[in-house]
Amino acid sequence: MTDKRTDSGIEVQPLYDQGSLAGFDPTSQLGAPGAAPYTRGIYPTMHRDRLWTMRQYAGFGTAADTNARFKFLLEA
After folding, report:
1. Which residue spans within 2-49 are E strands per DSSP?
2. From CA 32, how far away is CA 24, in angstroms rounded?
3. Is the link from the previous residue into 26 a cis peptide, with omega within 30 of 0?
4. Is residue 22 a contact partner of residue 15, using CB atoms and an 8 Å limit?
5. CA triple 46-55-36, angle to 5 deg
6. Whole-prediction pTM value?
7. If we measure between CA atoms, which residue out of 22, 44, 20, 47 comes closest to residue 33?
8. Which of 18, 37, 41, 19 is nearest to 27 (CA)?
9. CB of 66 closer than 8 Å to CB of 60
């Protein structure tokens, strides 16, 4: 099997089990959702109680092209 590593150089195992967590304390090393250090997200319920947000691309070639594109989209 090929050696797999994250961008940080951490080796990725093909399978993780209970033995892989030996010495791991989730309370101090991972934290709770919505609590510092925010490794599990900024909201305690994550995004389960929030609507999806629509994002738009804010660049289209030149500034003039972007302006024309947005005007076109607003007409529709």
Report:
1. none
2. 14
3. no
4. no
5. 30
6. 0.35
7. 44
8. 37
9. yes
